[in-house]
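A reminder from the course coordinator: this example appears on the midterm review sheet, so study it carefully.

Given structure:
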C-alpha cells in the first residue's frame, strides 16, 4: 500500500485509506512512491512488490494494480530485443523504454538498470550513466550489479544525487565470470554476500536486491542491513519481491523454454494471445473479418 494523498510528508508508506484494487481514490492525485516509503515498509515489517516494465501499457497496468516499484531492466535484452542474455543491451537501447515507463506510471517508483559496460570503468562512468537515466530516461533511481568492489561507484553516484539500488548474489551481467546461472551465497560464501550488502549500504545504496540466493542467506542479509532488501529467488524474508513481468504473467514460453524455479505464473498470456491470433487469422482467411459492423 502507498499513500493516497499528494502530501507525502504527512502520509508515510502504508498509511491512509487505500482501495483493495490498489487504485488511488477518485479525484485525488496519486502520491509518488519514494525511496523513504520503501525504507518505512521495512521498519514496519511490511512488504512491497516490484515488476519489470518496458513499455507504456505494462507500466500503466502495473501502476494501476498498485505495484510499488517498476524496473526498466536490462532484462529487456532477452524479453524485448530477442537476445539470449542481458549483455548486448546498451544505455541507448534502454533510454526510450525508460522514458515510456516513466511517462506512463503516475505513482510507482521507476528504477532503471545500468547495463553491462555502463559503469565498470570508473565511478565517473557510473555517474555519467546514472545522470543520463535520470535526465534523459526520467527514471527516479538506478540499479547496479556488483558487490563491495563497486562501493566507490555507488558513493560517487549517490553524492551526485542519483539514488542507487544495489544488486548482489547472482548478477546476470557476470554470468561468464560466475560460470553460468548458479545460486550464490551458499555455505561459507554467505559471509561474502553479507559484507557486500553492508559495504553497499555504507556507500549509500537505498536498497539491496538479491538474486538466486539461498533463503537462509537472504534472511541473514536482510537482518544485517537497515535498508530494505528485494528478492528474486531469495526466499520470503526480504522486504520486497521482484519478477520479470513476462514470467509472472506467462507470456514467455513455448517449446524448450525453461521457467526458473523461483517464478510463479499468475496468468497464461501466451496462451491467450496465441488463441486470439489464431482466431483472427482464421477469420481473415475465411472472410468472416471484417464484417459489416467493422466497415464504414
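Designed residues:
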Amino acid at each position: 500500500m502507498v499513500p493516497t494523498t499528494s502530501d507525502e510528508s504527512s502520509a508515510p508508506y502504508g498509511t491512509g485509506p487505500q482501495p483493495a484494487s490498489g487504485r488511488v481514490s477518485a479525484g485525488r492525485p496519486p502520491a509518488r512512491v519514494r525511496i523513504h516509503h520503501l525504507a518505512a515498509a521495512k521498519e514496519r515489517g511490511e512488504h512491497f512488490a516490484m515488476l519489470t516494465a518496458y513499455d507504456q501499457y505494462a507500466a500503466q497496468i502495473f501502476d494501476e494494480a498498485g505495484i510499488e516499484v517498476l524496473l526498466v531492466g536490462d532484462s529487456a535484452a532477452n524479453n524485448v530485443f530477442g537476445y539470449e542474455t542481458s549483455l548486448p543491451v546498451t544505455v541507448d537501447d534502454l533510454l526510450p523504454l525508460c522514458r515510456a515507463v516513466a511517462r506512463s506510471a503516475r505513482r510507482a517508483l521507476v528504477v532503471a538498470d545500468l547495463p553491462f559496460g555502463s559503469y565498470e570503468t570508473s565511478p565517473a562512468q557510473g555517474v555519467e550513466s546514472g545522470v543520463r537515466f535520470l535526465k534523459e530516461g526520467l527514471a527516479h533511481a538506478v540499479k547496479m550489479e556488483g558487490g563491495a568492489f563497486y562501493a566507490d561507484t555507488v558513493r560517487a553516484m549517490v553524492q551526485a544525487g542519483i539514488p542507487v539500488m544495489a544488486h548482489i548474489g547472482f548478477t546476470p551481467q557476470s554470468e561468464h565470470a560466475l560460470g553460468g546461472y548458479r545460486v550464490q551465497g551458499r555455505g561459507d560464501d554467505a559471509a561474502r554476500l553479507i559484507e557486500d550488502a553492508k559495504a553497499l549500504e555504507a556507500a549509500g545504496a537505498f536498497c539491496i536486491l538479491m538474486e538466486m540466493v539461498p533463503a537462509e542467506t537472504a534472511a541473514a542479509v536482510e537482518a544485517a542491513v537497515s535498508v530494505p532488501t528485494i528478492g528474486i529467488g531469495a526466499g520470503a524474508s526480504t522486504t520486497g519481491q521482484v519478477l520479470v513481468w513476462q514470467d509472472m504473467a506467462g507470456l514467455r514460453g513455448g517449446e524448450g523454454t525453461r521457467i526458473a524455479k523461483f517464478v510463479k505464473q499468475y496468468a497464461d498470456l501466451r496462451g491467450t494471445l496465441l488463441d486470439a491470433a489464431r482466431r483472427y487469422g482464421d477469420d481473415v482467411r475465411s472472410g468472416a473479418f471484417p464484417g459489416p459492423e467493422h466497415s464504414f
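The radius of gyration is 20 Å. The first helix runs from residue 35 to 43.
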